[in-house]
Specification:
With about 375 residues, the protein is α/β, with parallel strands linked by helices. Helix content is about 40%, strand content about 15%. It folds into two domains: about 140 residues, Aspartate Aminotransferase, domain 1, CATH 3.90.1150; about 230 residues, Aspartate Aminotransferase, domain 2 (3-Layer(aba) Sandwich). The chain is globular, with a radius of gyration of 21 Å.
Amino acid sequence: MRFETAKRLQRLPVYLFAQIEKKTEQKRREGLDIINLGIGDPDLAPPKLIRDALARAQEEPLAHRYSSSAGERFAREGVARWYKTRFGVEVDPDTQVCILIGSKEGIANIARAFLDPGERVLTPDPGYPVYASGAAILCEGEPSVMPLIPEKGFVPDLGAIKGRAKMMYLNYPNNPTGATVERGFLKEAAAFAESNGIILCYDNAYSEMAFDDYLAPSILQVTQDAVEFCSMSKTFNMTGYRIAFAAGHPDLIAGLRKLKAQVDSGPPIFVQRAAVAGLESYSSPSPPKEVRENIKIYERRRDLMVPALRGMGFDLEKPRATFYLWFRVDGGSIEFADRMLDSGVVVTPGIGFGAHGEGWVRIALTQSEDRLKEAAERMRRALGR
């Protein structure tokens, strides 16, 4: 007997990242030492304050029970305090905050809560694949590309957008390009969304991964008529904990909560305790010591790899945020990635982030400096440079 998937699933493009994992595993089986610069998964441990809070919470008998699908109130209160400290923004923990099982879940589920079949979703290209696939296509919506090109600083030209849309996803600091924006652009985006009746979904997962005294803004600093997704994953090296949160307009949060009540519970209560410990380490808009130490490590890695790549002939600037490097290559991005994999270095081909990513490659700075130096040497040899 053969089973056919739903048509919405058949509409999904081939998941390039699964293919890369398969190729990488094959190379490992062949005995090749692999340096993986392809995945945005921190190699650093969560700070001690997170681990200690987790250990304490696991001693609480009630911390092992189901959590509310909206998240525990103490966690929502922690998020509200963090928004006030970090961004100077007031949010109501009872109506404007929802705790998530990772921001990926929330980014997809907000579309499930508000999108009807055939409605158009504005998605950045290159961009995180969940916007177009996990959100728009799996809700039977129609993804509509907003090109991100270097000539415009990898920021969409809002004036060039035509036609009616229901939702728009924006993400700064940006994955994969590392681009950043100031509050002025967010005001422009908020005005565009309001004048066109668009639900503005702002993915702020990398807000705390910033260098050179840059402080990333929040969309809620310019409008409350939006929903923002923030994650503990990159800030505190907690990717495997699956803990994040959404904040924004009460109607958007209510829709997200109603959807989640039907499909999942909240993250484990002991994980929420650990997350709040991290958020409460903030005493000002600037990151606390634990996050600054984290950023310094990535900053050193950035300052090591950017000159190395320039020495190979690639043209790239030092990003002000994220732990990604994004640069143009000669020829196709998949062919370049395959060539690097043959030398034992995994990079992500830009085509995996959309058509406008073709000809580009993303590197994640999620290896030690020694391994990055070795990766750079392997790339140099593979390129004959």
